Amino acid sequence: MKKTMALFAAVVGLVAVQAQACPKLAGSYNCEYKSFPIDVTVVEIPGRGFTSYDVNYGLGRVVIHPDGKEHTIDKLPPLDSKAKNFKYTATCKGNEVPFVGTADMADGSGKANLTGRLVKGADAVEITFVLAAKNKTYDIQLACQPN
């Protein structure tokens, strides 16, 4: 019984530590994408041991789950005109949520690498998605200031 309680306390402690390692990104932001202003809203969704981020970035919406497991993104505008079947794995690392994965190129030319990150700065948030295919790289880079 004591071993079970100790194991339970250790797991609860690990979950609490892991949840605290994710940056606080919730808020409304004024961002810029290719010299155009975009309103971005980030909502934090508490989970079991991690915080998911629901990012509505004007061009589309994506939910990032930084739990170290593989997830699928159905749509990632405007990148979904170039690729489909986005799969990624994300984690929390201090003030950022990096993720890596793959996607199938829409033109049938094979797989592409998907990378990105959500970064919390002192007074700003950076949101980046990069799709790197054999001969071309597509990206979404948003530099954001709080509203």
Question: How are the secondary structure elements laid out?
Answer:
Elements: H1 2-20, E1 27-33, E2 36-46, E3 51-56, E4 61-64, E5 70-73, E6 83-90, E7 96-105, E8 111-120, E9 125-132, E10 137-146
Antiparallel strand pairs: 1-2, 1-10, 2-3, 3-4, 5-6, 6-7, 7-8, 8-9, 9-10
What's the architecture in CATH terms? Beta Barrel
N/C terminus separation: 52 Å
How much helicity do the residues have? Answer: 10-25%
Query: What sequence of helices (H) and strands (E) makes up the elements?
Result: HEEEEEEEEEE
Strand order of the largest sheet: 4-3-2-1-10-9-8-7-6-5
Radius of gyration: 17 Å
- Regions with little confidence, pLDDT below 50 for 5+ residues: 4-20
Oligomer: single chain
**What best-fitting shape do the alpha-carbon axes yield?**
globular
Q: What's the CATH superfamily, by name?
A: Calycin beta-barrel core domain
Average of the residue pLDDT scores: 86
In this structure, how is the largest beta sheet organized?
Answer: 10 strands, antiparallel
The CATH class label is Mainly Beta
Q: Report strand %.
A: over 45%
- How many helix segments? 1
How many structural domains in the coordinates? 1
CATH topology: Lipocalin
Concise overview:
The chain has one helix at residues 2-20, and strands spanning 27-33, 36-46, 51-56, 61-64, 70-73, 83-90, 96-105, 111-120, 125-132, 137-146.
What does this molecule look like?
- The chain has 147 residues and is mostly beta strands.
- It has a ten-stranded antiparallel sheet, with no helix packed on it.
- Residues 4-20 have low confidence and may be disordered.
- The chain has one helix at 2-20, and strands at 27-33, 36-46, 51-56, 61-64, 70-73, 83-90, 96-105, 111-120, 125-132, 137-146.
- It has one domain: Beta Barrel (Lipocalin), CATH 2.40.128.20.
- A hairpin with a 4-residue loop joins strand 3 and strand 4.
- The chain starts with a helix and ends with a strand.
